[in-house]
């Protein structure tokens, strides 16, 4: 089974109204943490083994995942003995590994710290703050078709993000939040080969600023273009927008987010 790494350790400073009491991946959309929306996106398409790279308030994510089967099931509690039994179809068919990768570790460093857990297999990676109607099977098939070390899903939202310069499907230069001439940006859904970890030197390495540009300059980073819905939850405004979409009952990622793994 292809593993899915989710980076869950950032401080979420631009969402401070929420993240002063919880890590960003536990900020809720429609009563459900965005982390679970993301995991359901993967799980609904057959990817059910997760490596969560924890950092800021990681113990809260551990607590949530430990009790998640109870949150999503009907419970019977015997108050005399303390015995708990659950029923219903609330449990997901997931395997979830939770690893503390350091509170101040950068994104590349978090990935590097997971190296012993990732082995020599192709793996998927995303951040704990973005949703979309991504066809993850097609993304993986595209990655396998070109034989390069890395694939990044590219999207075209408003121009406050960084950009990447492409030639065909190959990424030539990767700029995170610098230039805004190009419309395609990092959508945060990756497929990576284990050799990518060789580009990461230590905890201080940023995947976006340090590592991906090197991989692109070596001709090893390819772009999977996603024309559908995508949004990150970077600010309070983003959070409110996602909440409003969910409230309509027609959130573009909802079908995946409300499905179980097949």
From TrEMBL:
PANTHER family to which the protein is assigned, alphabetical: GLUCOSE-1-PHOSPHATE CYTIDYLYLTRANSFERASE, GLUCOSE-1-PHOSPHATE CYTIDYLYLTRANSFERASE-RELATED
Which NCBIfam families does the UniProt record give? G1P_cyt_trans
Q: Mind listing the UniProt keywords for this protein, alphabetically?
A: Nucleotidyltransferase, Transferase
What terms describe the molecular function in GO for this protein? glucose-1-phosphate cytidylyltransferase activity
**Residue ranges of every copy of the Nucleotidyl transferase domain listed in the record:** 3-230
User: What's the superkingdom here?
Assistant: Bacteria
Organism, as annotated: Paenibacillus plantarum
The protein, known as: Glucose-1-phosphate cytidylyltransferase
Q: Which InterPro entries match?
A: G1P_cyt_trans, G1P_cyt_trans-like, NTP_transferase_dom, Nucleotide-diphossugar_trans
Q: Which Gene3D superfamilies match?
A: Spore Coat Polysaccharide Biosynthesis Protein SpsA, Chain A (3.90.550.10)
- EC number from the UniProt entry: 2.7.7.33
Q: What class of enzyme is it?
A: transferase
């Amino acid at each position: 089974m292809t593993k899915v790494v989710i980076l869950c350790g950032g401080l979420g400073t631009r969402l401070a109204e929420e993240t002063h009491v919880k890590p960003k991946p536990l900020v809720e959309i429609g009563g459900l943490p965005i982390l679970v929306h993301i995991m359901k996106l993967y799980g609904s398409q057959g990817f059910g083994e997760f490596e969560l790279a924890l950092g800021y308030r990681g113990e809260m994510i551990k607590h949530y995942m430990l009790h998640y089967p109870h949150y999503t099931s009907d419970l019977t509690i015997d108050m005399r003995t303390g015995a708990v039994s659950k029923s219903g179809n609330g449990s997901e068919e997931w395997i979830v590994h939770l690893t503390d990768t350091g509170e101040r570790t950068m994104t590349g460093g978090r990935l590097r710290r997971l190296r012993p857990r990732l082995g020599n297999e192709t793996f998927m990676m995303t951040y704990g703050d973005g949703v979309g109607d991504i066809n993850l099977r097609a993304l993986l098939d595209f990655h396998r078709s070109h034989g390069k070390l890395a694939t990044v899903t590219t999207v075209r939202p408003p121009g406050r993000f960084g950009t990447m310069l492409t030639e065909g499907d190959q990424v030539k230069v990767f700029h995170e939040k610098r230039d805004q001439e190009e419309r395609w940006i990092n959508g945060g859904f990756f497929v990576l080969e284990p050799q990518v970890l060789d580009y990461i030197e230590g905890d201080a390495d940023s995947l976006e600023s340090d590592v991906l540009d090197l991989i692109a300059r070596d001709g090893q980073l390819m772009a999977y273009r996603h024309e559908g819905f995508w949004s990150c939850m970077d600010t309070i405004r983003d959070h409110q927008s996602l909440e409003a979409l969910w409230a309509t009952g027609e959130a573009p990622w909802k079908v995946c987010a409300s499905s179980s793994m097949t």
